[in-house]
Write a structure and sequence with these properties.
Elements (H helix, E strand, L loop, with lengths): L14 H18 L13 E6 L5 H12 L3 E6 L11 H9 L5 E6 L4 H5 L6 E7 L5 H15 L6 E5 L6 H12 L3 E5 L15 E3 L2 H7 L2 E4 L15 H8 L3 H7 L4 E3 L12 H4 L6 H35 L1
Parallel strand pairs: 1-2, 1-3, 3-4, 5-6, 5-8, 6-7, 8-9
Helix pairs in contact: 1-5, 1-11, 2-11, 5-6, 5-11
């Protein structure tokens, strides 16, 4: 059972809740190894996937998690909804809530939208990425993958490399990893670092070679060229030269670093194909752990919701 009703972000999220999710994810990963990869844990629960931005991995991962838990699932696309006719987001979600849904998985381009959603409906809300703010379920699956590889998060040295300015994944990982006792260093050009780093419990380096020498694992971020309203780097070639995790750079250091990437990858820019496909990379493990992690999150949050509703029903009977 978790102490929070929703999962909106990992800033100030309790370490015991993160560990509970991680431990539960390992239990559900065992389910995914069975011939029949399905349990009736959320049978009768209705979950709406409310995605206003494009998504492949996160959306499919959530859909698979819901199916594996036997939940009823509804997919909602903003492009084909009454929002295109001028209906407000508030009216849209309140109409959905009137249909007796139990949880909403929301991705939106505007930071803070999942928090606003909790004010309109009584369902559990899970943030699947809000603008450049947070992406908590990605960070949790990353922590599951790291604990699976190293046995513990405490004391791990994690380098996060790349476009931090536009990365919700970076923010959630910073909050989650430091809460769990890991040490985090960021590596990026100054133009791709957030201006509010004073509130982040991390160190900064502008040398990728220094980060590689220091770290146990690298989380490599995609260069989000589509989010850049102006040119923030001299060229892609120069970015790759200084901040790309290349085959040559990895061979030079000869260090058995664990390589991670949230996807999608720009092969040949922030990471070389030889590195992404090497034995050091656990990128496909991250994808599998994403299903198990989201199964754990859904199960724990909806179990908490059901418990709260039972308590309210008991109070009414008294």
């Amino acid at each position: 059972m978790l102490s929070n009703r929703h999962l909106l972000g990992l800033k100030n999220y309790p370490s015991q809740d993160i560990q509970t999710i991680i431990d539960t994810a390992f239990q559900f990963k065992e389910v995914l190894d069975r011939p029949i990869k399905k349990v009736p844990s959320l049978q009768g629960q209705t979950i709406v996937n409310l995605f206003f931005e494009n998504s492949t991995r996160t959306r499919i991962s959530f859909e698979l998690a819901q199916k594996r838990l036997s939940a009823d699932m509804v997919n909602f696309s903003g492009s084909g909804s009454s929002l295109k006719k001028g209906e407000s987001l508030k009216d849209t979600v309140q109409n959905l809530a009137a249909m007796k849904i139990d949880a909403v998985i929301m991705r939106h381009s505007v930071p803070g939208t999942p928090v606003q959603l909790t004010k309109f409906i009584d369902a559990v809300v899970i943030n699947a990425g809000d603008g450049t703010h947070e992406h908590p379920t990605q960070a949790i699956l990353d922590m599951v993958s790291l604990q699976e590889k190293f046995g513990s998060l405490k004391g791990l040295k994690i380098g996060i490399v790349g476009d931090m300015l536009h990365s919700r994944v970076a923010r959630s990982n910073i909050f989650g990893l430091t809460t769990m006792g890991a040490h985090v260093k960021l590596c990026a050009p100054p133009t791709l670092l957030p201006s509010d780093l004073g509130g982040f419990p991390v160190n900064i380096s502008y040398s990728l070679d220094e980060i590689i020498d220091w770290a146990d694992s690298l989380i490599i971020l995609r260069l989000q060229l589509e989010r850049m309203g102006q040119t923030l780097i001299p060229s892609v070639r120069e970015y790759r030269s200084f901040f790309g995790v290349t085959s040559e750079r990895m061979k030079k250091h000869g260090k058995p670093l664990v390589i991670m990437h949230p996807g999608p990858m720009n092969r040949g820019i922030e990471i070389d194909s030889d590195v992404a496909d090497s034995n050091q990379a656990i990128i496909l493990n991250q994808v599998l752990n994403g299903v198990a992690s989201r199964m754990a999150i859904l199960y724990l949050l909806l179990s908490k919701k059901n418990s709260e509703e039972s308590d309210r029903d008991e109070q009414k009977l008294k």
